[in-house]
Structures are given as C-alpha cells and as structure tokens.
Specification:
The structure is a homodimer of 219-residue chains. The first copy, chain A, has 219 residues and is of the alpha/beta class. Helix content of chain A is 52%, strand content 13%. The first copy, chain A, folds into two domains: 138 residues, Rossmann fold (3-Layer(aba) Sandwich); 59 residues, Orthogonal Bundle (Arc Repressor Mutant, subunit A), CATH 1.10.10. Chain A is elongated and about 70 Å long. The two termini of chain A are 35 Å apart. Chains A and B meet through helix 10 of A and helix 10 of B. The structure holds a DNA duplex (30 and 30 nucleotides).
DNA sequence: TATTGATTAAGTAGTACTACTTAATTTTTA
DNA sequence: TAAAAATTAAGTAGTACTACTTAATCAATA
C-alpha cells in the first residue's frame, strides 16, 4: 500500500449497528483528508456485501451487530479473500473477544474509548502492515504472549457444568440460589464462578455476562 | 374462540431464535393433540410474516431475537390487527420486560422454566380470554398493581447520569473506577446504582446488564 | 488400569455490592 | 422565582462476590 494522500485517499468502510456510533467515527475521521469513508454497514451481512462490492483499503467494524456479528463477518471477508485491512472497534476489552478477533484475522483491536488522533494513527499503522491495539488491550496481549512462546491459541474450554452455572449467574441468580437449584455447595458454585472468570480472563460478573450473552448472539 | 378439539386444534406459531428452545416447546406441546404447531419463526421479522400468512390462534414468542425482538414483533402484530393471542415466553423475569410486553399487548408472560402442564394450561386459559403469568412473575405484577389503582403505567425514567453509570457498570467497571472516571464520590456512584436497581426492579448487576444490553438490542 | 479432566468442597481473607435513609446542592422547568 | 427533579454524598449494616489454595471423589479414556 502506498502512502495515502488527499488526492488518493484511503477507502474506508465503517460497520456498526448504531447510527450514533457511525456518526461518531465519521466525525473522528473527517479531520484527516487522507481517509475517505466510502460506505457504511449496519450489520455483518451488509458489511460483507459492501466490502465485496467496494473493495476498500480498510474496514473499521464493531463486534456486536445483528444478523452477522463483526467477527463472523471478518471471517467471511477472509474466506472470500477480499484484500483489506480490518480493525475491530469494540466495547469489549476482554481476551475472549480479542482472541476471537485475532484468530479471525483482525489487524487491530481498539477500544471505543479511542480519540481521533489515536484512531487515525492506528489506521495509518495498520496500512503499513502493523497490528494495533489500544492501550487497554495491550495488557491482555502481553499476558497471553508471556505464557505462550508465539501462538499458543489455547482454546477456552467451558465445561458443561460451568456453562450451566454461567447461565444462572447471567440471569442474576446468587451463588446461594444456584447451589440450592443444583444441589451443590455454595462453595462449589463459587469455585465454578472463579474458574469461569479465570478462563475468560475477566474479574466480575458483568464481564462474564457479556461473554455469555454475546456468545449466544454470535453462534 | 370455541373449545379446541383434536379434530379442530388450536393453530400455534412458535418464535425463538434457538432451534433447541423451539424443539423443547414442540416437545412440551406435543402431548396435547388439541394444539398444533403450524409454523415456527427464528426472529421477530419472520414471526410477523408467518403470523400474517397463517393467521394462527396463538403465538408463543421469545423476547430476545435477532432482527426484530419479540416485543417489537408483538407491536407490529397488533398494529396490523392480526387477530391472535400472544404469550411471551422468556428468561427475563423482571418488570421492565414484563411491562414492555404488557404494554405491547401480550396476553401472557411466562418464564422459560415452565413445564408442559403449566404451558398447556396457560394456553387454554389465554384462549378463554384470561391473562397468564408464571408464578415467578406474579410477584412483579402484584407489586405494581398494589401501587397503582388500575393501569398506572408509570414509565421508568433513567436520567442521563444514571445511563452513564449504567453503561459503565455494564462494562464491568467497579464503583471505584466509575467514581474516578466521573470525578464523583464512590458513595454517589453507589447511590446511582441503587436507584437504577430500584427503578428497574432488579437486585443485582447481572439483571441490570441484561436490561442495558437488551435495551440496546431492541432500539 | 493409570492418568487426565470434571466436579465437588472448604480454608482464609479481602473487596465490592446491596439495602435503605437522609439531606445538601445544583439544575431544570413550570 | 418557586417548585420539582437531578445530582451529589454519607451513615449504617449486612450480604455477596472475588482471590487463590488445596484436595478428595468420580468419570472418561488412553
């Protein structure tokens, strides 16, 4: 990719199901004339279609979207060998989504907290072939790469029992309730909760729920 | 509606995005020959379409579905004056969804924990013109109708600040973190959390998040 | 059958959340 | 500008969750 210029700008496609978010990104990117948003998509299916049609240089996509989520859309884009860089822009700063995104072939994984300057820099870096992560995500990457030599890709395996407990936790049930329902000790439930959080690299029920709800939406 | 019989069974349509759930309901209803499932839908849009086409006697629908959620689908069904009873079958036992469902014109609101006998009875009751709620939901209804004479319909209003805090809570942020981010006291954040839970009639962060995520999916 | 993985459970300790009240200050609106 | 609503904040107390460890039992499988 040659250096983008005002007369030969980067072709960008945005994907997010919320008009507000798209408007926000449009706004952020509007300050740099080297970037041109050529189309937008409000779900993963639209995204795959518009990427096929427009052949953009770069895609900036949300993860949680109706019809087809961002990660599955990314997989399709890679399958179809549509040559473009893809940055996931998301509210989920956990290693579960990060890993899925990387595995699917994302070139970047940025938090929605990002500002204009950072986003534009990230795009330009990605175009140069680099991978970008927002600061808040770096620590997850570090943690992972410290444990593994290069690409460990240890898949997160949630057992049947854990899934059962996760579902109840996500419904707002207390450990006490879950214990009674499943005829096990409160301490056992707590163990499962703890193990789940370890596996998913989160530290509270809120993030646990995001995982459980998103997983359902994505599959 | 005349009494359904084996030779003249009730026409039922199911809507749920998960094949597993539909299969489960099919199973539950299969024991009563007076009920016949004539079609299924896996999202709200499909549901509206199939109801328009098939004119069923009764619809049993999930709330959280892609494309169009169950409540919005119900609204459309009512708008289109498609004459049928609608029971929401859901995992969300909170007054937020209950109220939305009732407001949209639901004839029943049942928990997914229901068993075959209860479900069949509920359907037959609804056909007689009654409204049905599963036990776990009754307490919510009671609470509401105690305060209000008949139809209070006090809308739940979440202030800007509360929304801001809800979003952070839903991201898994602690009160400590939120306080620092918004330059307010931890106790203030806790007050907002408490008020939010009161307004939404829930008692922990898990249910709070369901609300916040679902609200986003539904609007 | 020996090993691995799943499930169970408890110890210990700290942190965060939840419940409910009261009330002062802003801000908004009638 | 007075009244209402929103935001702030703290008191008090209890409950639930989170962190990390160790370990027994059971089931599957190599």
């Amino acid at each position: 990719m040659i250096e983008p210029t005002e007369s030969n700008p980067l072709k960008v496609i945005l994907a997010d199901d919320h008009e507000i978010v798209r408007a926000g990104i449009r706004r952020l990117l509007s300050i740099d004339r080297r970037l041109k948003i050529i189309d937008e998509a409000e779900n993963g299916q639209d995204l795959v279609d518009t990427v096929s049609y427009h052949k953009p240089d770069i895609v900036i996509s949300d993860i949680m979207m109706p019809k087809l989520n961002g990660i599955d859309a990314l997989k399709k884009i890679r399958e179809l060998k549509l040559d473009c860089y893809v940055i996931m822009l998301t509210a989920y700063e956990d290693s579960f989504h990060l890993e899925n995104a990387l595995e699917a072939g994302a070139d970047g994984y940025l938090s929605k907290d990002i500002n204009a300057k950072e986003l534009i820099e990230a795009i330009l870096d990605v175009i140069k072939g680099e991978r970008v992560f927002s600061k808040s995500v770096v620590r997850l990457v570090k943690k992972k790469s410290a444990n593994s030599s290069e690409l460990d890709a240890t898949p997160v395996v949630i057992t049947k029992r854990e899934q059962e407990i996760l579902d109840l936790v996500a419904k707002g049930k207390t450990s006490q309730y879950i214990a009674e329902k499943l005829f096990i000790s409160v301490r056992t439930v707590e163990s499962h909760r703890y193990n789940l959080m370890q596996k998913l690299d989160v530290s509270n029920v809120a993030e646990l729920i995001r995982y459980s709800i998103l997983k359902r939406t994505s599959s």
